[in-house]
# Entry
Amino acid sequence: MTNRTRRMLLMLLLIVVGALILVGCSSAPANDNMNDNNGNTSEKMTLEKLAEFDGKDGNKAYIAVDGIIYDVTDNPAWPDGEHNGVMAGQDVSDILKNDSPHDLDITDDLPVIGELE
# Structure
C-alpha cells in the first residue's frame, strides 16, 4: 500500500469518525414532546392548541379522550372534522362516555398524537 493510499484512508477514517462524533453529540431541542409505543414523536398540547385541529380549512382533525390526543383526520367517520354533530378540536371524553353508543375501544385504532397538558 502506498503512502498516498494510506493518507487517503486515514483522511477518510477521520472524516467518518468526525461525522459520527457530531451526530452522537448533537441533541434535539428541548421541548415537551414524548414518544408513543411506536417510537413516534408525540406532543403535549393545551385545549387551546387542540382547538386549532378542527379539520376545517385544511387543518388536521384531532380529538382528546381521557387526556390522550388522537388523529381522526383520515378516519371516514370524521369527514371535515365532524362526527354525528361532534366537532374535532376538543376533548370528547364526556361525550364519548355519556352520550355515545361507542365505548372507549373505538380509540384503539386511532393514531396517537400526544397528550393534553
